[in-house]
Automatic annotation (TrEMBL):
Keyword presence, Membrane: yes
Pfam families xref list: STAS, Sulfate_transp
Gene Ontology CC terms, in alphabetical order: membrane
Membrane spanning stretches: 35-56, 63-84, 90-120, 132-154, 174-201, 213-234, 254-282, 340-370, 390-420
Membrane topology qualifier: Multi-pass membrane protein
Official protein name in the record: C4-dicarboxylic acid transporter DauA
Lineage: Bacteria, Pseudomonadati, Pseudomonadota, Alphaproteobacteria, Hyphomicrobiales
A Gene Ontology biological process term: transmembrane transport
UniProtKB keywords: Membrane, Transmembrane, Transmembrane helix
């Protein structure tokens, strides 16, 4: 199908990048590169998927199911050539809250509903609008999530004993952790800090090595060899199964559906932001372009399918996607192979996961949180402007102390209001017949001609006003005030909108209100430089011929207005 007058065809928008890559030609060398990249990403994803699942309040095997099923579908159907899907640290906060409130069954249902939301958003081509999330909002909620993730790992990192359970809100959590400090386990501290040290050192000295997996493997060997008294996946969860579970739908009732709807909306909002942000990062690294709406459709399908096999929220993951690119991936097959390698681990080596110390996985997530925090960007935005700082802090604090959805929505709302305020300040109104006349007396210093005055220069009778800038509801009040300073009853009006790129109904109503008395008196009214959309909107607000005349430019409009006042109206044919 070819392009339509309204843009690219449906086929062009929703063809998966896998199809595009295969059409371009795919050989044995490409497969070799993708297999190596897929293996590398799987090695990174293995400990991360389990750690994220545990931090989210579910068993570690569910993290693997998410990466296997969801990751495969994201790569096979997605609109990004290099995107790697799976469980993400950004979801830990909302997933843990959902599990605590609605249980695992509620989490699975909420994930499926969020998949439907994402699928619909993609089909309705809303992917473009997700990109409008302001940068301070993204930095704010990312930093907040990083803080919450780190706080959630302190218990396992220090081997603390919390008999009453760990509270979810941050402040009660900190209080509970402080009270539990006497129960600290030195062996857990050593393994956790040792894992962090291994990751940091290896990233600097051996950046191509799988530092997270090496840290977890070394910690597991040390804990097993020395018989350290620390919690492991085996002692807490009894290990992980060696197969994918049979496909099963979660329990669906109307009551439960309504109850998990807010959580599903949060998953969809965060998933769309996270996945498209990851796709943009991949584009910047490779020079390719992703299809945002196709990507949302793939994310939706992945989030519908993953819970059927016991997984939870799937999204594009920035760190794993970047690893995929750096490892030499040629296309989506690398992501599909990454899922296949994780499945092979599950089938062949699942019993070994029982020896992994939870302190080591906590160390892995602590480094993830540190890298997520975007400390430099946070500090830069605090210094950039007062508006950016307000948006950043509002998003950060609301995400930390209320919830993620509230933080994003309020941050976006404040950003929108600040944008509208800045745009409204850019609209200017100039008035007076001097806009075109060259032979005028110089104005005295400090004087500024802002409005038409019929007494000036021999009693001019034409009100000439030029509006420039995007004229919308936010600027209507200031423009109306400027127009009110124009003389009450000139004999003719000339309004120049040639420098107005956009005009909405509020603006059209403001112009119509200004011209109302002139229309009632039958005064000649000329509007210059109106584009076709602006002219159509003004017509709908009763500013249409023959009462109003439209001209191409201000000079022509002013000339014809003078002719009209000179009883020479027969020479001015309406161009509107």
């Amino acid at each position: 199908m070819g392009a339509t007058p309204d843009g690219p065809s449906f086929t062009a928008l929703f063809t998966p990048k896998l199809v595009t890559a295969l059409r371009e030609g795919y050989g044995l060398a490409d497969l070799r590169s993708d297999a190596l990249a897929g293996l590398t990403v799987a090695i990174v994803a293995l400990p991360l998927s389990m750690a994220i699942a545990i931090a989210s309040g579910v068993t570690p095997d569910r993290g693997l199911y998410t990466a296997i099923v969801g990751g495969f579908l994201v790569s096979a159907l997605g609109g990004s050539r290099f995107q790697i899907g799976g469980p993400a640290g950004a979801f830990i906060v909302v997933v843990a809250a959902t599990v605590a409130t609605h249980g695992v069954e509620g989490l699975l249902l909420a994930t499926m509903i969020s998949g439907v939301f994402l699928l619909v958003a993609g089909l309705f081509r809303l992917g473009t609008f997700i990109k409008f999330i302001p940068y301070p909002v993204t930095v704010g909620f990312t930093a907040a999530i990083a803080l919450i993730i780190f706080a959630s790992q302190v218990k396992d990192l220090l081997g603390l004993n919390l008999p009453g359970g760990e509270p979810s809100p941050l402040l009660p959590k900190i209080v509970a952790l402080a009270h539990a400090l006497p129960s600290i386990t030195p062996a857990a501290v050593a393994l956790g800090l040792g894992s962090i040290l291994v990751i940091v050192v290896m990233r600097r000295a051996l950046p191509r090595w799988p530092s997270m997996l090496m840290a977890v493997v070394l910690a597991s060997i040390v804990a097993w060899a020395l018989g350290l008294p620390v919690e492991t996946i085996g002692t807490r969860f009894g290990g992980i199964p060696s197969t994918l579970p049979s496909p099963t739908l979660p329990e669906i009732t109307w009551v439960k559906f309504v109850a998990v709807l807010p959580a599903a909306a949060s998953f969809a909002l965060l998933g769309s932001i996270e996945s498209l942000l990851s796709a943009v990062v991949a584009d910047s690294m490779t020079g390719r372009r992703h299809r945002s709406n196709c990507e949302l459709v793939a994310q939706g399908i992945a989030n519908i399918a993953a819970p059927i096999f016991g997984g939870f929220c799937v999204t594009g993951t920035i760190a794993r996607t970047a690893t995929n690119i750096r490892s030499g991936a040629r296309g989506p097959i690398a992501g599909m192979l990454h899922s296949a390698f994780l499945l092979l681990f599950l089938l062949a080596a699942a019993p070994l996961a029982a020896f992994i110390p939870l302190a080591a996985l906590a160390g892995v997530l602590a480094t993830v949180a540190w890298n997520m925090a975007e400390r430099h960007a946070f500090a830069t935005l605090l210094r950039a402007s007062r508006g950016d700082a307000v948006v950043l802090l509002a998003t950060f604090l609301l995400t930390v102390f209320v919830d993620l959805t509230t933080g994003i929505l309020v941050g976006f709302a404040i950003s929108a209001l600040l944008f509208l305020h800045r745009m409204s300040q850019s609209v200017e109104v100039e008035a007076g017949t001097s806009l075109l006349e060259e032979d005028q007396a110089d104005e005295a210093p400090g004087e500024e001609r802002t409005a038409y005055d019929p007494s000036e220069a021999g009693g001019r009778e034409i009100a000439v006003c030029r509006i420039s800038g995007a004229f919308f509801f936010g600027a209507a009040a200031s423009v109306a005030n400027a127009l009110d300073r124009v003389a009450a009853q000139p004999k003719a009006y000339v309004i120049d909108v040639s420098a107005v790129p956009f005009l909405d109904s509020t603006a059209a109503t403001t112009i119509a209100g200004f011209l109302k008395s002139g229309l009632q008196r039958g005064a000649p009214i000329f509007i210059a430089g109106a584009t076709s959309p602006i002219r159509k909107l003004l017509h709908s607000h009763e500013l249409a011929p023959p009462a109003v005349h439209y001209r191409q430019d201000l000079e022509t409009a002013l000339r014809d207005a003078r002719k009209a006042l000179g009883k020479d109206a027969t020479q001015t044919k309406d161009a509107g």
